[in-house]
Amino acid sequence: MINKLVSNQAFIRELASQRAFITQLTSVGISANDIRGGRLTANSGVSSFDLDNGRLSFYDNFTGVFRDQSNASSQGLFFRNDDVTINGRRYVNSKAIIGADRRDNDIRSHWDQGGFNGMIVDTIKGVGTGDHDNADKVTFVGDRFNFTHSYNYDQATGSSPYGWRITTWGGTTIAPYGTNGRNTNMQAGDFLLINNRE
Predict the structure, then answer these.
(1) How far does CA 93 lie from the centroid of its chain?
(2) What is the rounded CA–CA span in Å between residue 103 and residue 118?
(3) pLDDT tens digit string along 145-156?
């Protein structure tokens, strides 16, 4: 047993300790049941996790939270900041993107194309809605949108999903879904119907 050890350098194959204070630790792997501390930071600096304040931060356009599995759609939540010029001034178009891509296994590459299903939230700090389309915008992307009271059969109410379906691919329609159309209605102060057929 060593009561006290002072060393500038030590090579130890295995160390069992009840308590240790180490100002800097370089390790290939760490296994623990409980890790407590201030901040986890990537060696590259692209992400950090402030454990004390519960804040996970990303610092480039290729970071986020993803579900990866071969032979499955790529799923994720990630964030982009892209430069945009408005009236001769440089701004940053910030995007929060959540969804899945059925065409390949990298949602980050094709979130702006047809195989993506999800939501894109655009904001541009310091820019009004009338100055740029992306200043304050939410875009929902998908071939079909179901607005229903439940995703599957609801045991509590004994009912299958019903509500409205919006179709954006092929024929563009808004129609009742899972219910008799006579039990539905649309309400507004005015309706503008446009028929451009010759």
Answers:
(1) 16
(2) 14
(3) 999 999 999 999
